[in-house]
């Protein structure tokens, strides 16, 4: 039973599977039915499946038949309709065939046109592709052409920029073309060419700058001079917040277009062609004369090429060489101011260029480099100025040089360079300037003293009087009251010397201008220089005049008078210096003028020269003395030479009326003493071995004439008999011999109130020996007269006895 149930279950399962397969066959495409049929054949119920399949086919046939029977009439109608349509379709086919034939015939031209259109379309496509490729290549070619044009017009920095764009932007887009490869191969060569050409431009610029540094410096110094003149004008007006021109004001910043579109011209050489302008026109800026574009271009080119350091080192090296050339002064620079000016212009031009490069480039030069160059330039410039200025003997040239150095220093100070050492060096040149002034004024004083007539200045009108008083500070109420014509006591050299001293002070003041010195320093400098002028230059000039061989007593007297008035004028010179320096003489450490001492020394020298000159004149007259020492005749008048000498002395001392009383008295006393001493020497001269009492009497007359002159008071101010004391030695000696008063002399010798106190035993012995010799000689000649021999012998014995006592007195006096 159970077996039956199992068989029944299996049969139901198989039937269901077969049903599934049949459904799948019905619903599946023919191409995919293989797997389904395989499952049938793989099973064990193949026969049963075939039976079911046959059954299913029969069922479908019956359904088809039923359907056909249901639709048969419609099918017949459709066939009928279809047969009708076939005829129409044949007609339509014929029409279509005919139409196609006509269309084919008519479409041949269209086909040909279409073929042509196809070719055109193909060409158009090719052209479009070609245009696209050309459009891709054209920018490369245009850039390359632009590069060549820029190279040709020497616009190298733009060319370098173009080359960069070409290399990095355009060429990579068309790198597969052969011409691009050629361009790529040429790029390093073009870079080197740009590098070499820009370096060549830089060399031309440096060479041109070296040649034109003086022009640049001259312009910069003109600007500084104009600014200083403007500052002086402002200082003369009310000052309201005025400030010194800053470097920024004086500095002209250039906006140089690096990518210039203009071809290289003369400007690229470094110097613009600027014509000389008139002084009253505006001076162009120093940097306006210079086109720095070659430097900028070369700097940018080397920076782009990665060789900036090489460029900086080359530029600095070349500029150092140029600096050494600029700082080498010409050998004849000291001869003219233009030599110094050109030297300064070149230095200023050099540093103006460097300063501009410092402020318009980043790192090409730095402050340390500029400072190093300036230190070298400063030391070399100062050394050169010390050397060449020492050759200058013209004070005007030294003064112009000082002004030029100040302008040079002020110009460079505007650009920020320290110039204190230059002003320190100017203080050294100031000493040299003072020396050259002293030499110049030595010549001026010499000309004044040589051309002076050493006579009081005559004036015949009030106008002439005021003119002299205006030149020299002189006040004399008595002279003012005198009617015209009248005379000043001094000669013309007094106002001339006084004015020249003031001119010297002005000259000293000129040098101190713009040296940034205080009023005290200026005052001290002027006073010291003026003291040198007075104590050395003027003193030497006066001494030379006083010591001249042909100087006369009148001139010496006038010199004494002149120096007296110049001495009085020293206080006015003090006031003059105080007025121009505004430093009171009472200020601590103020130097005093030594003019008083100078004129006193000159006056004393003139006085001594008067004394010497008088003595020389006396000696000249004494040379005319022709005494007959052997005469026996007694004269009754003084010798002619002595009369003339006394007349000369009277006229000379009459000129001494304007001299200070003491000077005239000293001169008169000196002359009388010298005359007395000379007469004594004449009497005791060794060549005169014999002397008669008659000759001694004549000599006594001459001495009396001298004593009469002394008593007459040739110079007022002597006390009575004071001047006669100059001849006291002679008078006592002559009285002793003429009166033959030996007993009194020998008895009173050594007493303070003795009669012959001034007679020296040795002098008396010398004169006695001369008389003794004459007497002995006369005795021998007259020995034929016996009556005279005894008297002569007695007198000779007396002479011998007196001589013996005189020798004793002489020896005791010496012991």
Describe this protein's structure:
The protein is mainly α. Helices cover 73% and strands 0% of the residues. It has 26 helices and two strands. It has helices at residues 2-27, 34-42, 46-152, 156-170, 178-236, 247-250, 293-304, 308-326, 337-360, 367-389, 395-414, 420-451, 462-471, 477-481, 493-512, 519-546, 553-568, 570-581, 595-622, 640-655, 661-683, 693-711, 728-739, 742-748, 761-781, 786-814, and strands spanning 458-459, 486-487. The chain has a two-stranded antiparallel sheet with strand order 1-2. It is rod-shaped, with a radius of gyration of 69 Å. The N and C termini lie far apart (212 Å). 28% of the residues are buried.
Content of β-strand: under 5%
Distance, first to last CA: 212 Å
The number of distinct β-strands equals 2
* Category by helix and strand content: mainly alpha
Major sheet size, sense and barrel closure = 2 strands, antiparallel
Gyration radius (Cα, Å) is: 69 Å
SSE string, helices as H and strands as E: HHHHHHHHHHHHEHHEHHHHHHHHHHHH
Query: Which consecutive residue ranges, at least 5 long each, have pLDDT under 50?
Result: 238-281, 784-788
Counted by DSSP, the helix tally is 26
How would you write the strand order of the largest sheet? 1-2
Average per-residue pLDDT, rounded, comes to 78
Inertia-based shape: rod-shaped
Q: Give the helix proportion (percent range).
A: over 70%
Helix-strand layout with pairing:
Layout: H1 2-27, H2 34-42, H3 46-152, H4 156-170, H5 178-236, H6 247-250, H7 293-304, H8 308-326, H9 337-360, H10 367-389, H11 395-414, H12 420-451, E1 458-459, H13 462-471, H14 477-481, E2 486-487, H15 493-512, H16 519-546, H17 553-568, H18 570-581, H19 595-622, H20 640-655, H21 661-683, H22 693-711, H23 728-739, H24 742-748, H25 761-781, H26 786-814
Antiparallel strand pairs: 1-2
Helix pairs in contact: 1-3, 3-4, 4-5, 5-7, 5-9, 5-11, 7-8, 9-10, 9-11, 10-12, 11-12, 12-15, 12-16, 15-16, 16-19, 17-19, 19-20, 19-21, 20-22, 21-22, 22-23, 25-26
């Amino acid at each position: 039973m159970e077996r039956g149930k199992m068989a029944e279950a299996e049969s139901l399962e198989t039937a269901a599977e077969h049903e599934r397969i049949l459904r799948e066959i019905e619903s599946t495409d023919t191409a995919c039915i293989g797997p389904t049929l395989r499952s049938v054949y793989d099973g064990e119920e193949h026969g049963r499946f075939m039976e079911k399949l046959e059954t299913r086919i029969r069922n479908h046939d019956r359904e088809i038949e039923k359907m056909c029977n249901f639709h048969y009439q419609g099918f017949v109608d459709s066939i009928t309709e279809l047969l009708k349509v076939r005829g129409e379709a044949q007609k339509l086919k014929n029409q279509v065939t005919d139409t196609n034939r006509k269309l084919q015939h008519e479409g041949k031209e269209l086909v040909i046109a279409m073929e042509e259109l196809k070719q055109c379309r193909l060409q158009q496509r090719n052209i479009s592709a070609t245009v696209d490729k050309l459009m891709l290549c054209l920018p490369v070619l245009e850039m390359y052409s632009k590069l060549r044009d820029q190279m040709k017009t020497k616009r190298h920095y733009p060319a370098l920029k173009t080359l960069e764009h070409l290399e990095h932007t355009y060429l990579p887009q068309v790198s597969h073309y052969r011409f691009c490869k050629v361009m790529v191969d040429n790029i390093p060569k073009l870079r080197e060419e740009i590098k070499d050409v820009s370096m060549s431009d830089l060399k031309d610029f440096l060479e041109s700058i070296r040649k034109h540094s003086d022009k640049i410096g001259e312009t910069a110094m003109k600007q500084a001079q104009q600014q200083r003149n403007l500052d002086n004008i402002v200082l003369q007006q009310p000052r309201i917040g005025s400030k010194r021109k800053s470097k920024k004001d004086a500095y002209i910043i250039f906006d140089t277009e690096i990518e210039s579109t203009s071809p290289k011209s003369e400007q690229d050489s470094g110097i613009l062609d600027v014509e000389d302008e008139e002084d009253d026109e505006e001076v162009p800026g120093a940097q306006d004369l210079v086109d720095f574009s070659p430097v900028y271009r070369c700097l940018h080119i080397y920076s782009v090429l990665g060789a900036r350091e090489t460029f900086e080192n080359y530029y600095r090296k070349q500029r150092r060489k140029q600096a050494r050339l600029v700082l080498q002064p010409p050998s004849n620079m000291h001869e003219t101011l233009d030599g110094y000016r050109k030297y300064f212009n070149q230095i200023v031009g050099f540093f103006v260029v460097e300063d501009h490069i410092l402020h318009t480039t980043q790192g090409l030069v730095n402050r340390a480099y500029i400072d190093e160059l300036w230190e070298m330039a400063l030391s070399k410039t100062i050394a050169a100025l010390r050397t060449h200025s020492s050759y200058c003997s013209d004070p005007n040239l030294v003064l112009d040089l000082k002004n030029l150095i100040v302008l040079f220093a002020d110009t460079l100070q505007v650009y920020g360079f320290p110039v204190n050492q230059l002003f320190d060096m100017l203080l050294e040149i100031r000493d040299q300037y003072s020396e050259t002034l002293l030499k110049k004024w030595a010549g001026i004083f010499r000309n004044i003293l040589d051309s002076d007539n050493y006579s009081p200045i005559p004036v015949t009108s009030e106008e002439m009087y005021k003119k002299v008083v205006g030149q020299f500070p002189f006040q004399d109420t008595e002279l003012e009251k005198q009617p015209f014509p009248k005379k000043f006591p001094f000669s013309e050299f007094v106002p001339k010397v006084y004015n020249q001293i003031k001119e010297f002070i002005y000259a000293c003041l000129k040098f101190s201008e713009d040296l940034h010195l205080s009023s005290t320093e200026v005052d001290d400098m002027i006073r010291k220089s003026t003291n040198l002028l007075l104590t050395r230059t003027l003193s030497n000039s006066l001494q030379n005049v006083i010591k001249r061989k042909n100087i006369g007593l009148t001139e010496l007297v006038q010199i004494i008078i002149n120096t007296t008035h110049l001495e009085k004028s020293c206080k006015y010179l003090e006031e003059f210096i105080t007025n121009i320096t505004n430093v009171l003489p009472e200020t601590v450490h103020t130097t005093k003028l030594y003019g008083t001492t100078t004129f006193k020394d000159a006056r004393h020298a003139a006085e001594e020269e008067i004394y010497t000159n008088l003595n020389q004149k006396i000696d000249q007259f004494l040379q005319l003395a022709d005494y007959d020492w052997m005469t026996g005749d007694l004269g009754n008048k003084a010798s002619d030479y002595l009369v003339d000498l006394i007349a000369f002395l009277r006229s000379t001392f009459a000129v001494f009326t304007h001299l200070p009383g003491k000077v005239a008295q000293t001169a008169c006393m000196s002359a009388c003493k010298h005359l007395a001493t000379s007469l004594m020497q004449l009497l005791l001269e060794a060549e005169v071995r014999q002397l008669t009492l008659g000759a001694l009497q004549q000599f006594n007359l001459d001495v009396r004439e001298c004593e009469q002159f002394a008593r007459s008071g040739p110079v007022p101010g002597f006390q009575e008999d004071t001047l006669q004391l100059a001849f006291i030695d002679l008078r006592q000696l002559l009285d002793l011999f003429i009166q033959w008063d030996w007993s009194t002399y020998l008895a009173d010798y050594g007493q303070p109130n003795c009669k012959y106190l001034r007679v020296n035993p040795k002098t008396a012995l010398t004169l006695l020996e001369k008389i003794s010799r004459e007497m002995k000689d006369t005795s021998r000649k007259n020995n034929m007269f016996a009556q005279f021999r005894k008297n002569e012998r007695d007198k000779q014995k007396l002479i011998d006895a007196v001589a013996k006592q005189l020798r004793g007195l002489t020896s005791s006096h010496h012991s």
